[in-house]
Design brief:
This protein has about 110 residues and is an alpha+beta fold. It has two helices and five strands; from the N terminus they run αβαββββ.
Length: about 110
């Protein structure tokens, strides 16, 4: 009986320790006018165009947020101009690890106005 109770208490202690030390990652606002976000927004459009060959050109970032883990992931809402000269809104997610000079365009999609 005592051994069973000890096991239950030990398991509860481990579960509590893991639950309270787990880091909750959150998205934080980022300045869409910062040089960093403008650079990443422009790069995201260029990388998308390299893959899709649809002639988009970066216009401006209108909102951004970042999440820091081992590296930083940015979500950027931006305007890009198509070959027809019309601006359209897109959302890009860019993973950045500056320690190894690495960028990855995780997603790029149109946003309904």
């Amino acid at each position: 009986m005592r051994t069973g109770l000890l096991v239950v208490v030990a398991i509860a202690a481990v579960v509590y320790a893991v639950a309270t030390t787990a880091t909750a990652y959150e998205w934080d606002p980022a300045d869409p006018n910062s040089p960093r976000v403008k650079d990443l927004g422009s790069w995201a459009v260029e990388e998308h165009d390299r893959r899709a060959h649809d002639g988009l050109k970066f216009v401006k970032a209108v909102s951004a947020e970042s999440m820091i883990k081992a590296a930083v992931t940015y979500r950027i809402v931006l305007f890009a101009q198509g070959p027809d000269g019309e601006d359209a809104k897109y959302k890009a997610e860019v993973f950045v690890n500056d320690e190894i000079s690495y960028r990855d365009l995780r997603s790029f999609s149109p946003v309904a106005n």
